């Protein structure tokens, strides 16, 4: 981006002040500001290279000048390394066409590979640049997952071995809060097993009641119960060793690369197919069949009418299969942290039937109840949101991606 282009963006951003009442003008200014930020991030990358040639400890000089820590400075130096390997992305960043989030997901994907395989990913740079230039961040993240899978060519087995070698757990007391803190990372297969045991323990201990002092916020509540479930496991209490539950969603409307229905096993991470077979064998599998957002088959009673306000286990299972996160488009809050909302409110005569239920995070649930968001859910689960400012957002039926 030439200096005149930068100045034009500055003028555009400065023209929209705190008193602006034009929504479209504010949206344009947000985009211009983001392009400016991307350009500044690119300049920071350039400065890391200059400092590397001018001093012995460039990270310290950068950190002091930027008033950040060494960790923050190291992230910028890491981006410089990634952009040197993928110069096309540097052009995009310099012109404000991508944010550093794109560069970071590219870098994580690139570094996850063995050195010999990194070269193969770099050979695919033109296609990745083209995808980044026109894709949302979420779409580009999936593009990178697919690219890494193609480069590895072994179904993810080598990656799993590297992940197992990167298993870590830190433990210690926080000098400020006095709390004992754990921080760890585990390979996805081990992680799924640990998560399953914690979920089983939570269900065993807290299915009917929760301890005094349990937070009411859904996210904080899950963290609280998970901590007490871990304590119970370490003390040998309860039964956290039951079989894990796996929800398999078969979407007969969509087609995979072989022309068959898309099958989603509901795992939050990719695992090798060979390992997946073992996971399925050790789990209680529930199959849900959908077409165009309509549930054709699912076990359990899915329509409860006015008999109860709370969704039952079968309804929650189906909703978890359809919605891995909050139903509002773009919201990444995971299903387990969401509330089950009656689209036609319970207090207004709504029923606890599947077609009237939707997972919403606590923030968007408050927007519906307190800030005038009006939801409509079609038979194919197309969601329409009407906002108080008369704008409308519509998203199609929840879709599944191939496993």
UniProtKB/TrEMBL annotation:
Domain HNH nuclease: 314-366
Pfam families recorded: DUF222
Organism in which the protein naturally occurs: freshwater metagenome
InterPro entries reported for this sequence: DUF222, HNH_nuc
Protein name, as recorded: Unannotated protein
């Amino acid at each position: 981006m030439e200096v005149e282009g930068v100045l034009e963006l500055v003028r555009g951003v400065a023209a929209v002040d705190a008193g602006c009442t034009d929504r479209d003008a504010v949206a344009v200014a947000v985009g211009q500001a983001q392009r400016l930020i991307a350009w500044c991030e690119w300049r920071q990358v350039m400065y890391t290279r200059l400092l590397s040639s001018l001093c012995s400890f460039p990270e310290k000089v950068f950190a002091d000048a930027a008033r950040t820590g060494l960790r923050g400075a190291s992230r910028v130096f890491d981006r410089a390394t990634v952009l040197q390997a993928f110069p096309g992305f540097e052009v995009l960043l310099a012109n404000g066409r991508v944010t550093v989030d794109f560069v970071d997901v590219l870098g994580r994907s690139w570094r996850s590979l063995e050195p010999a395989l990194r070269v193969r990913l770099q050979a695919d740079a033109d296609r990745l640049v083209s995808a980044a230039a026109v894709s949302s961040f979420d779409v580009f993240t999936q593009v990178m997952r697919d690219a890494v899978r193609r480069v590895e060519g072994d179904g993810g087995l080598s990656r799993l071995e590297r992940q197992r070698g990167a298993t870590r757990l830190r433990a210690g007391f926080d000098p400020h809060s006095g709390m004992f803190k754990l921080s760890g990372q585990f390979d996805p297969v081990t992680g799924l097993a640990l998560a399953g045991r914690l979920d089983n323990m939570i269900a065993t201990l807290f299915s009917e009641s929760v301890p005094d002092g349990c937070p009411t916020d859904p996210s904080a509540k899950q963290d609280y119960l998970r901590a007490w479930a871990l304590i119970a496991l370490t003390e040998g209490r309860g039964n956290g060793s039951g079989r894990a539950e796996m929800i398999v969603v078969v979407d007969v409307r969509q087609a995979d690369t072989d022309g068959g229905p898309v099958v989603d096993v509901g795992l939050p991470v990719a695992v090798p197919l060979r390992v997946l077979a073992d996971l399925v064998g050790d789990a209680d599998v529930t199959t849900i069949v959908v077409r165009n957002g309509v549930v054709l088959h699912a076990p359990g009673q899915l329509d409860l009418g006015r008999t109860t306000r709370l969704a039952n286990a079968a309804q929650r299972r189906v909703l978890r299969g359809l919605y891995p996160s909050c139903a509002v488009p773009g919201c990444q809050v995971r299903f387990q942290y969401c509330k089950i909302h009656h689209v036609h409110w319970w207090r207004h005569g709504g029923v606890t039937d599947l077609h009237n239920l939707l997972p919403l995070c606590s923030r968007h649930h408050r927007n519906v109840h307190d800030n005038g968001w009006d939801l409509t859910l079609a038979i194919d689960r197309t969601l329409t949101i009407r906002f108080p400012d008369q704008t409308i957002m519509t998203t199609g039926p929840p879709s599944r991606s191939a496993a």
